[in-house]
């Protein structure tokens, strides 16, 4: 079987909420992800979400490093950026830039690979992000680079009081 892959990352400033897009062709099957308001469903979506999670989980235990964007160390947005970049999907580098990025979705509808946004512990602005690793509404788990006492990439639960209290919204960058 011949595999042909081409990727297109499109973030247009004319959209108020840019969405990462990815086109891929495997054999004759075409896969298309978001272009802001139009979505073409695909049965390959779950495969990509699982691949993103596997890659993220391979980085568990990597140290937290302020402004880090490499496997030597990450901050929270650097981790999300690095994971999605590995799949040629462009997402913001700064947690605050996620405020108007992606498609906001109800927490009850999150899927693996969606992104959770949290307030900073010290100010009323987006200050932390993580990738949903187990989708279950407000009981979901997420993988993130934690700056708390653990200081590493880890999996946490949204039902933990500190995260429940600071949770802002979930966004989807894949469909």
Radius of gyration, whole Å: 16 Å
Order of helices and strands: EEHEEHEEEEEHE
**What does the overall shape look like?**
globular
Q: In angstroms, what separates the terminal alpha carbons?
A: 26 Å
Low-confidence blocks of residues: 1-43
User: Largest sheet, if any?
Assistant: 6 strands, antiparallel
Oligomer: single chain
Q: What integer is the average pLDDT?
A: 82
* Helix/strand/pairing category: alpha+beta
Strand order of the largest sheet: 5-10-6-7-8-9
* Portion in beta strands: 25-35%
The share of residues in helices is: 10-25%
Quantity of strands, as a count: 10
In DSSP terms (H or I, runs of 4 or more residues), the helix count works out at 3
Can you describe what's shown?
With 175 residues, the protein is an alpha+beta fold. It contains 3 helices and 10 strands, in the order ββαββαβββββαβ. It has helices at residues 45-57, 76-85, 161-166, and strands spanning 23-26, 29-32, 69-70, 73-74, 103-105, 115-119, 126-134, 141-145, 153-157, 167-172. The strands form 3 sheets. It has a 6-stranded antiparallel β-sheet with strand order 5-10-6-7-8-9. It has a two-stranded antiparallel ribbon with strand order 1-2. A two-stranded antiparallel sheet has the order 3-4. The longest helix has 13 residues, at 45-57. It is globular and about 35 Å long. The chain starts with 22 loop residues before the first strand and ends with a strand.
